Automatic annotation (TrEMBL):
Keyword Magnesium among UniProt keywords: no
One Pfam family, short name: MarR_2
Segments traversing the membrane: none
Domain HTH marR-type: 3-135
Gene Ontology molecular functions: DNA binding; DNA-binding transcription factor activity
Protein name (Swiss-Prot/TrEMBL): MarR family transcriptional regulator
Taxonomic superkingdom: Bacteria
Keywords: DNA-binding, Transcription, Transcription regulation
Length: 141
């Protein structure tokens, strides 16, 4: 049965998680892709549009729209890279850091709800096993 296949379970989980995140993040004026971009920039600030797009699994054109929306809200700013004339870096602003913290709280609540019937050890094992699946797929492509 399809509902017992790992790929189906992963996709269904992703769809439900995205639906929950879309609704909850909307309460603070963020979309899920905007939250993802801000989260990546928190970890690795100063990425170019192309680098940010790769990390967020979207096209550069889509990322351009996401970054433009974040710029309009003053959550990010863009500046020329001092070491590379054509590269434009995207940087979090203090407003972006604040809204991102609100987003983190929302997403943590959703993840807590999603894993409420699992022990901390089971959550850690799930992360470990799914990470191994990612590594296997990345090495075979």
């Amino acid at each position: 049965m399809v509902d017992k296949r790992l790929g189906y379970i992963i996709k269904r989980t992703q769809q439900l998680l995205r639906l929950q995140m879309d609704g909850a993040l909307d309460t603070v004026g963020l979309t899920t892709p905007q939250y993802a971009a801000l989260s990546i920039l928190e970890e690795d600030e100063g990425l170019s549009n192309a680098e940010l797009a790769r990390r967020c699994f979207v096209t550069p054109q889509t990322m351009h729209k996401i970054v433009k929306g974040l710029e309009e809200k003053s959550y990010v700013r863009r500046q020329s890279d001092p070491t590379h004339g054509r590269k434009i870096n995207t940087l979090l602003t203090s407003s972006g850091e604040e809204i991102l913290q609100s987003g983190h709280e929302i997403v943590e609540d959703i993840e807590t709800e999603m894993t409420q019937d699992l022990t901390k050890g089971e959550v850690a094992q799930t992360v470990k096993h799914l990470s191994k699946c990612i590594e296997s797929l990345e090495s075979s492509s």
